[in-house]
From TrEMBL, chain A:
InterPro entries: AAA+_ATPase (IPR003593), ABC_transporter-like_ATP-bd (IPR003439), ABC_transporter-like_CS (IPR017871), ABC_transptr_haem_export_CcmA (IPR005895), P-loop_NTPase (IPR027417). The gene is ccmA. This is Heme ABC exporter ATP-binding protein CcmA. Pfam families: ABC_tran. SUPFAM superfamilies: P-loop containing nucleoside triphosphate hydrolases. Belongs to the ABC transporter superfamily. The keyword Translocase applies.
TrEMBL record, chain B:
GO terms for biological process: cytochrome c biosynthetic process; cytochrome complex assembly. GO terms for cellular component: plasma membrane. Its main location: membrane. This is Heme exporter protein B. Keywords: Cell inner membrane, Cell membrane, Cytochrome c-type biogenesis, Membrane, Transmembrane, Transmembrane helix, Transport. It is found in: Cell inner membrane. Pfam families: CcmB. Belongs to the CcmB/CycW/HelB family. It is a multi-pass membrane protein.
Length: 211, 217
């Protein structure tokens, strides 16, 4: 499987934010998106997920098993964690799993992200870091091959960041792809870097993006 | 595993239970209770205008929860999650509309016969009011969701949505009250109500979905 962006140009509110962005990520690959504030990192991830249709260019998924839209193969972990205050931690995750068409175990996912003992706690009682961990649990109980992570380490403590690195590494070893707008090293190994602060805004050809 | 639209429907039901779903019925009761104070203790007059009062009360009560219908999902990232579901976005919005109708409008339909007695509305007319509300409120729920979608993200969206929706609700109100008149054949008004419910039921999720897609841009 291969995720390809060709000459991607995206606008928000009538202003062009990204122009002619080019990259390709293979199964097991990773792409780290960097750039100054306002460079369009979040915009790029949202466009890849299909939330922001591009003005021109395209994002396509090559070698997928079915004809489903690419967004159905993607997880977007954005700035907002989609945690409902009025629902318990468990109910929040059950909804997310079912809404995303997943079949994974909720309890095991919560245990993995360190929230196993907080299953019945209401979402309103969670700290920002715990809400982030709950969002990470979604990645586990509704498996999808492409993870789009927007500043995924935000609000996570050192152990949370280590957990995230583990999850990313496991996901890649299983053939998944990760595209992350982040300043942290997420065990990307020899993953490529896309710098939105540069004029070209494309992944250099010499960078190996398979691993 | 629950299918995505059903999961969203069940989640919204659970959220409504934990977040004051009975407010609409309380408001409805207040409208019905205050009316006799305004028009006086003339039972004949109350009985005559009762169906209109019940419809007006129900219409206004359906507007109460609109400010949070989509706003909460917009604010906490829930809309992104819904968009990434392996189901058409419009179908997911349809599930939200159904949940909104179940938690906001259905209690009003059930309460209407009880409140009708307070206005001295006859049993037959009360039954017609309940039936007309059952048929007509889905149209109001769809309109409300479109209004909520148009104003999501706006600071005064909760005030603006009713202003947008109420003029579009007039046909539902007219045919709804006409369908409650015991002295006439109600086939025409009831057919019109069914037609409006079907048209809004199809167009509502599509219009709300398109609006929310545009909002993301």
């Amino acid at each position: 499987m291969r995720l390809v962006a060709e000459a991607l140009t995206v606008a928000r509110g009538g202003t062009v934010i990204l122009e002619n962005v080019v990259f390709a990520v293979e199964s097991g690959g990773a792409l780290s998106v960097i750039g100054p504030n306002g460079a369009g990192k979040s915009t790029l991830l949202r466009s890849i997920a299909g939330l922001l249709p591009p003005l021109s260019g395209e994002v396509r998924l090559e070698g997928a098993d079915n004809d489903a839209p690419p967004r159905e193969s993607m997880h977007l972990l954005g700035h907002l964690d989609a945690v409902k205050s009025g629902l318990s931690v468990r109910r929040n995750l059950i909804f997310a799993r079912d809404a995303l068409g997943g079949e994974g175990g909720v309890s095991s996912a919560l245990d993995r992200v360190g929230l196993g003992s907080l299953e019945e706690l209401p979402g309103s009682a969670l700290s920002a870091g715990q809400k982030r961990r709950l969002a990470l649990a979604r990645l586990l109980c509704a498996p999808r091959p492409i993870w789009l992570l927007d500043e995924p380490t935000a609000a996570l403590d050192i152990r949370g960041q280590a957990l995230l690195s583990e999850l990313v590494e496991e996901h890649r070893k299983a053939g998944g792809m990760v595209i992350a707008a982040t300043h942290a090293d997420l065990a990307f190994g020899r993953g490529a870097t896309l710098d939105l602060g540069l004029a070209s805004r494309s992944v250099p050809a010499e960078v190996d993006i398979d691993a | 595993m629950t299918c995505p639209p059903a999961a969203l429907f069940l989640r919204d039901l659970a959220l409504a239970r934990s977040g004051g779903a009975g407010l609409g019925v309380v408001f409805f009761l207040l409208v019905v209770t205050l009316t006799p104070f305004a028009v006086g203790p003339d039972l004949a007059l109350l009985g005559r205008i009762g169906p209109a009062i019940l419809w007006l009360g129900a219409l206004l009560a359906t507007l109460l929860g609109l400010d949070r219908l989509l706003q909460a999902d917009h604010e906490d990232g829930g809309l992104d999650l819904i968009f990434l579901a392996p189901a058409p976005f419009e179908l997911m919005i349809g599930a939200k509309i159904l949940a909104h109708w179940t938690t906001t409008c259905l209690p009003l339909v059930i309460a209407a016969p009880l409140f009708g007695m307070m206005l001295d509305v006859g049993p037959e007319t009360t039954l017609r009011v309940a039936l007309a509300l059952l048929v007509g409120t889905p149209a109001l729920a769809c309109l409300g969701t479109v209004g909520a979608a148009l104003t999501v993200g706006l600071r005064r969206g909760g005030l603006l949505a009713p202003v947008l929706i109420l003029p579009l609700s007039v046909p539902v109100l007219i045919f709804g009250v006409a369908a409650c008149d015991p002295g006439r054949d109600v086939t025409g008004p009831m057919s019109a109500l069914v037609g409006l419910a079907l048209v809004y039921g199809v167009l509502g999720p599509i219009a709300a979905g398109a609006t929310l897609r545009l909002l993301r841009e």
